[in-house]
Amino acid sequence: MPRVSVRNQLIEHAEDVFRRKGFHGASVQDITRAAGAPKGSFYNHFASKEELAAEIVLGYVQATDFAALKGDGSALDRLRRHLSGQLDRIRASGVEFGCLLGTFASEAGTAGERVRRSVREALDGWIGALALTIREGQAAGEITTDRSAADLAAFLLDLLEGATLRARATEDQSSVAEEVGIALDALRA
Fold this sequence. Notes:
By secondary structure, this protein is mainly α. About 75% of the residues lie in helices and about 0% in strands. It has helices spanning about 5-25, 30-35, 40-45, 50-60, 75-95, 100-110, 115-140, 150-170, 175-185. α4 runs parallel beside α7 and α7 (about 115-140) crosses α8 (about 150-170). The longest helix is centred in the middle third of the chain and has 27 residues, at about 115-140. The model has no long low-confidence stretch (mean pLDDT about 90).
C-alpha cells in the first residue's frame, strides 16, 4: 500500500479543519494535529496557512462537477441537476459547515490576497459555467432575457451560497433546495 505524503495529509485534513473552524479559527497546530504530522513539517510544504488555503480552494474547484451543465435536457433542468449536485456535496461534508467556498469567502477580506484571489477566481469560474448554460436557455427562449446571463448566474450562485449560509446557522438545509427551485422558476421566460 503506497504511503500518503505528508503534504497530501496536510491538504486533506486542513480542508476539514478550515470547514469546522474557518480560516482564522484554524491554527497550523490544529492542521498538523489533524493530519498526524509534526508541526514543523507544515513549513516544509507550505510557506503559510494562506498558501495552503489557496491550494485547498483550487482543489475544491477542480473537484466540482460541472458535467450536469453540459448534459442532456433543457437549460433549466441542467441548472437544477447541477445545483442539486452541489447541495448533495454540501450535505456530504456536513450541513453545519456549509460550502467550503462560502466559508473562505466570508473571511476572504482578512485572510490575505492569495486566498481572496483564489476564492474570487473560483466564484468567477463557477459563474462563467452557469452563464454558459443560461445563455443556451436564453437562446432557446426558455430563460428570461431581462437580465444578462452573467447577472443571472451570479444571482443563482449568491442565492445558493446565501441559503447555505443560513442553513449553517439554523442547522436545517431543507429550505435551500426549495429556494433554488424558486429561483430557477423565476428565470423562466
